[in-house]
């Protein structure tokens, strides 16, 4: 009965624009970003809809053409057609039975070893660890019908290369109730290693199925996740590609652990402006001895730590989905978080001032 009500509401609520975009042409659709639940809640709370919950993945958002196997990022850039690591994904897309309902699917390109491994695997001849997780298809109707069409199309998994993102259907009711459930579902998904959860609504406010404005945020797909932040020792700063950009791209940090497992790389948060990235790169000598001239290295004392926002620390001590959000000076840290070298220097200074030692 709930499903019938959902389909009826979908047919009644969805109105195709007079300027609807044709999603069968060679030009890929422009996807909207997932909205933020806390920002959209006031606008949607009183509305009634059918709710669907999915885990929030941490990979590369990809729109894929199931006819040609070509893949596009959210900005519209095509992933290299000659990249050897993507050939098995393209083959899997083309080998699926053709759909007479849609041409493009929406998903997340994932790597078994985490987001930072995707770029390297794309250029690798085997593409080991890469898979495409599908959560939607580009079809001008509500999510209930889009997901039904996607399930019908993905009748068999291509050796794990194409995977359907698990979707939990909620009750038909108010968006306010759905947002409460979203937090509960999100906490469960985080325990399973995901970023959080995504709530997909049956066109509470029509936005072309979520594929109208590139870079815009859909009101029919709302994300929820909890982020934490911790300070980590800085090993080296990396310039944003291409070389010579003069902007900070990522930071290599150390954590508790041994050998290679002691280090991890955190990308700069997307909220950073170009000016801030440039300033950080110009001041890199402050943050790491690796950027200091040899004649100055003996007297270098680390004064800063990298502040990394993440979704919790996993069992190996690695921050999950870590992003660099800033730098924190040691004076802004409690003494228990100082390094032994910093603590010794502070005590030496105190003894010198107090006792003239």
Automatic annotation (TrEMBL):
It comes from the Eukaryota. GO terms for molecular function: ligase activity. InterPro entries: NAD_dep_DNA_ligaseB. GO terms for biological process: DNA repair; DNA replication. This is ATP-dependent DNA ligase family profile domain-containing protein. It comes from Phaeocystis antarctica. The lineage of its organism: Eukaryota, Haptista, Haptophyta, Prymnesiophyceae, Phaeocystales. SUPFAM superfamilies: DNA ligase/mRNA capping enzyme, catalytic domain. Keywords: DNA damage, DNA repair, DNA replication, Ligase. The keyword Transcription does not apply.
């Amino acid at each position: 009965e709930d499903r019938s009500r959902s389909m009826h509401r979908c047919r009644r609520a969805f109105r195709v624009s007079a300027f609807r975009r044709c999603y069968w042409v060679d030009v890929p659709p422009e996807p909207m970003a997932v909205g933020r639940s806390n920002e959209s809640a006031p606008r949607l709370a009183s509305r009634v809809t059918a709710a669907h919950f999915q885990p929030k993945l941490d990979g590369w958002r990809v729109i894929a053409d199931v006819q040609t196997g070509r893949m596009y990022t959210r900005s519209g850039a095509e992933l290299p057609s000659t990249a050897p690591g993507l050939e098995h994904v393209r083959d899997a897309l083309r080998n699926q039975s053709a759909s007479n309902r849609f041409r493009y699917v929406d998903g997340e390109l994932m790597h078994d070893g985490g987001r930072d491994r995707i770029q390297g695997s794309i250029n690798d001849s085997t593409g080991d660890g890469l898979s495409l997780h599908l959560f939607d298809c580009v079809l001008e109707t509500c999510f209930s019908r889009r997901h039904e069409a996607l399930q019908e199309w993905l009748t068999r998994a291509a050796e794990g290369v194409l995977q359907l993102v698990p979707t939990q259907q909620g009750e038909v009711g108010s968006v306010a109730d759905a947002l409460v459930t979203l937090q509960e579902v999100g906490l469960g998904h985080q325990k399973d290693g995901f970023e959080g959860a995504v709530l997909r609504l049956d066109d509470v406010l029509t936005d072309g199925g979520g594929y109208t404005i590139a870079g815009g945020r859909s009101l029919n797909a709302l994300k929820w996740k909890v982020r934490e932040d911790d300070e980590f020792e800085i090993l080296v700063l990396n310039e944003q590609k291409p070389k010579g950009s003069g902007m900070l791209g990522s930071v290599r940090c150390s954590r508790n652990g041994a050998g290679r497992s002691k280090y991890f790389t955190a990308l700069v948060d997307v909220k950073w402006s170009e000016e801030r990235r440039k300033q950080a790169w110009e001041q890199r000598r402050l943050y790491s001895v690796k950027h200091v001239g040899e004649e100055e290295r003996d007297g270098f004392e680390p004064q800063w730590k990298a502040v990394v926002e993440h979704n919790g620390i996993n069992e190996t001590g690695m921050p999950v989905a870590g992003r660099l959000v800033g730098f924190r000076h040691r004076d802004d840290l409690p003494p228990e978080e100082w390094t032994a070298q910093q603590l010794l220097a502070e005590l030496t200074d105190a003894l010198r001032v107090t006792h003239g030692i």
